[in-house]
Design goal:
The protein has helices at 7-17, 22-29, 33-40, 50-57, 61-66, 72-98. By secondary structure, it is mostly helical.
Length: 99
Amino acid sequence: MESQETIAKRMRRLRHERNLSLKEAAALIGVPTSTYKEWEYGRAIQGEPYERIAKCFGISLQELISGRAPDIQKQQLSERVRCLKECLTALERELLALA
């Protein structure tokens, strides 16, 4: 994906990748088809529909706005480290209780 991709181009690309028509995407977001079409042609998005747009395409808000997906692997590793720390703390408590 090119770094100069606008939100409008990104929305068009995502819609095509998911084989959605303009009407289907608009319905999923909850806006008129004409409004959605104007967004894809570069009209400014008014209000707060960004979360609904991201949800429609199954991406994060960060990815919609920036074009970069969050680092899922990093998030997963952080969660595993957190779980391991909790387990080690519990084991340490058990060990101290035996002493």
